[in-house]
Design goal:
Elements lengths: L1 H34 L7 H10 L10 E2 L4 E2 L5 E3 L4 E2 L4 E3 L4 E3 L4 E2 L4 E3 L1 E2 L7 E2 L2 E3 L4 E2 L4 E2 L4 E2 L4 E2 L4 E2 L2 E2 L4 E3 L4 E2 L2
Parallel strand pairs: 1-4, 2-5, 3-6, 4-7, 5-8, 6-11, 7-12, 8-13, 11-14, 12-15, 13-16, 14-17, 15-18
Antiparallel strand pairs: 9-10, 18-19
Helix pairs in contact: 1-2
C-alpha cells in the first residue's frame, strides 16, 4: 500500500512540476512581450519572445498587440498571417490551432477548460480554420471548431462546430447570412 501511495505521489508531483515550469516559462516571456511598446517595427522581436516561450508562431508574418495573456504558450500553434488586436486572453491547458490569415479583434477570450466537477477539469481543444475574422469581445468556448472563411460578429459566444456559412452572431453564435 505504501509503495502505491509513493508511486502515485511521485507521478502527481512530476506532472505538477512539468506544468508549473511550462507556465512559469510562458509567464516570463509573455511579461517581456507586454513590456515592449506596441510598435509595428518591434513585432519581430516580440514574436521571438513568444517563440522562446514555446508558442509555434510565424515570426515574420504575425502581429500580436500588447496585453496578450496565455496559461501555456506551448499549446498555441498558428500559421502565417495572424493578426491579433489588444487584450487577447487564452485560458486553460487545451491546444489552440489557428489557421493562416486569421484576424482577431480586441478583448477576445479563448477558453479551453470546463469545470464539470470539483475534482477534475475537462480540457478541450480549439481549432480555427483559414481566413477567419473574429470580432471584438467574442468568447470562444472549449471544444470549438471554426471552419474556413467565416466571420464572427463582435460580442458573440461561439459554442460547438461552425463549419459553413459566412457570418455568425449572437449568444450562442448562429448563422446570420
Amino acid at each position: 500500500m505504501v509503495k502505491k501511495i509513493k508511486k502515485f505521489l511521485m507521478y502527481e508531483l512530476k506532472n505538477i512540476y512539468s506544468i508549473d515550469v511550462l507556465r512559469l516559462r510562458s509567464r516570463i516571456f509573455i511579461g517581456l512581450f507586454n513590456i515592449f511598446p506596441d510598435l509595428y517595427c518591434l513585432r519581430y522581436i516580440k514574436n521571438i519572445l513568444l517563440a522562446c516561450g514555446g508558442m509555434n508562431i510565424s515570426i515574420y508574418s504575425t502581429y500580436i498587440k500588447n496585453n496578450f495573456y496565455s496559461d501555456m504558450l506551448s499549446n498555441i500553434n498558428s500559421k502565417q498571417g495572424l493578426f491579433v488586436n489588444s487584450n487577447l486572453y487564452i485560458e486553460g491547458l487545451g491546444a489552440i490551432e489557428i489557421g493562416s490569415g486569421v484576424q482577431i479583434g480586441p478583448n477576445v477570450q479563448f477558453l479551453t477548460t470546463n469545470h464539470k466537477n470539483r475534482n477534475k477539469d475537462d480540457i478541450s481543444n480549439i481549432k480555427i480554420g483559414d481566413n477567419v475574422w473574429i470580432g471584438g469581445g467574442c468568447i470562444i468556448l472549449p471544444g470549438c471548431e471554426i471552419g474556413d472563411n467565416i466571420n464572427i460578429a463582435a460580442g458573440s459566444v461561439v459554442k460547438g462546430k461552425i463549419l459553413d456559412g459566412r457570418l455568425y452572431a449572437g449568444n450562442p453564435a448562429i448563422q446570420k447570412r
